[in-house]
User: Which sequence fits this backbone?
């Protein structure tokens, strides 16, 4: 049987390859995480303060809708409120999409399903983007690298990472295809998904300068407009246009010089690492329990950018730097690298950089990342704080 020509295109073959990788990794993580939640693994559950209401999910979905995921689900169902004062910290686009597509009022299941579907779409578009610049082999390695990052469980855990990665990779792809209006719109949506989305303006302006576009670059003004929409929603909801910033006080976050969290991390590791190494972590819900892991990932991210910035290009490296550097500007007093290993997950230039390393380096990466990925997935579904 001969397939139609449109079904024999290289892009279709690449998309199917990427989907196979993505589904394989998700199935592995889902099985391990769900088995852990059902008590089939020798791990002890943690006490979880933000468990979603029992009506929002079943045993098969509920374990993937805890911690920050429960906030997005609650906002989708109830809207923003200053009681207990944290909800404006979570940007509105993902809750709006959950509410729009809520299946029979099951917000938790909808959030989980959307996160999974956004991840699949993001992997395909990212593969197209990387192929256009670095070739198919690098694109495949990039998908493997992102899909096996230690905190990749959030791609199926009703978080915003999947949506954000989809929007930002699609914005880059639109720029390379000369669709500046679409790029600006996608960038604006990214700015409504996470605060770092507005930083997309920097690399896209750089790409515009390289391509010598003129009036079409004005479409990029839609990116800060997206942040303005967040301010408008906060004003209408809680009467404070800067509520998304003020709510960060609940996590003791404040602006500071980026080197201060590094100094604090160095001092804290001297107290934490020896007992942590012997299995005595600060506590299942204490973010300091993950500080050694976050510190290791921080070192790897900056080393990768330093080594690969010429290889992946200035503007891609700038976007990676925005994503890995911004969490240091708004660090938390609870832990200087609070959620750092999750925030850098969406920095796809890092994955591209690792994908361009020699074969033995990639083997070393996968040998370290896969066990960590499976282990953290198991802990997350038991309500441990991971990132």
Assistant:
């Amino acid at each position: 049987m001969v397939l139609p020509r449109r079904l024999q295109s290289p892009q279709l073959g690449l998309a199917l390859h990427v989907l196979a990788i993505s589904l394989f990794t998700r199935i592995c993580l889902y099985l391990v995480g769900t088995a852990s939640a059902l008590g089939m693994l020798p791990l002890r559950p943690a006490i979880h303060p933000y468990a979603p209401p029992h009506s929002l999910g079943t045993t098969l979905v509920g374990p993937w809708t805890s911690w920050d995921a429960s906030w997005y689900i609650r906002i989708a169902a109830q809207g923003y409120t200053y009681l207990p004062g944290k909800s404006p910290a979570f940007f509105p686009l993902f809750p709006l999409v959950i509410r729009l597509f809520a299946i029979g009022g099951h917000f938790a299941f909808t959030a989980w399903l959307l996160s999974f579907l956004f991840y699949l779409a993001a992997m395909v578009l990212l593969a197209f983007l990387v192929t256009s610049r670095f070739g198919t082999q690098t694109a495949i390695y990039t998908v493997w690298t992102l899909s096996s990052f230690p905190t990749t469980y959030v791609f199926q855990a009703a978080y915003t990472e999947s949506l954000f990665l989809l929007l930002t990779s699609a914005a880059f792809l639109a720029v390379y295809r000369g669709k500046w209006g679409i790029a600006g719109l996608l960038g604006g949506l990214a700015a409504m998904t996470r605060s770092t989305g507005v930083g997309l303006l920097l690399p896209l302006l750089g790409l515009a300068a390289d391509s010598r576009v003129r009036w079409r670059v004005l479409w990029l003004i839609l990116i800060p407009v997206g942040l303005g929409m967040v301010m408008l929603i906060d004003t209408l909801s809680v009467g404070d246009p800067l509520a998304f910033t003020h709510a960060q006080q609940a996590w003791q976050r404040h602006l500071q010089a980026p080197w201060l969290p590094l100094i604090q991390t160095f001092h804290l590791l001297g107290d934490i690492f020896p007992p942590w190494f012997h299995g005595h972590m600060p506590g299942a819900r204490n973010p300091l329990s993950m500080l050694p892991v976050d510190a290791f990932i921080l070192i790897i991210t900056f080393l990768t950018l330093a080594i690969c910035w010429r290889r992946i290009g200035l503007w891609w490296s700038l976007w990676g730097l925005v994503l890995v550097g911004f969490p240091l500007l708004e660090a938390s007093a609870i832990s200087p690298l609070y959620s750092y290993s999750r925030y850098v997950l969406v920095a796809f230039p890092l994955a591209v950089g690792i994908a361009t390393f020699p074969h033995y380096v990639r083997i070393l990466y996968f040998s370290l990342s896969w066990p960590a990925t499976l282990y953290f997935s198991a802990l997350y579904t038991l309500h441990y704080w991971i990132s």
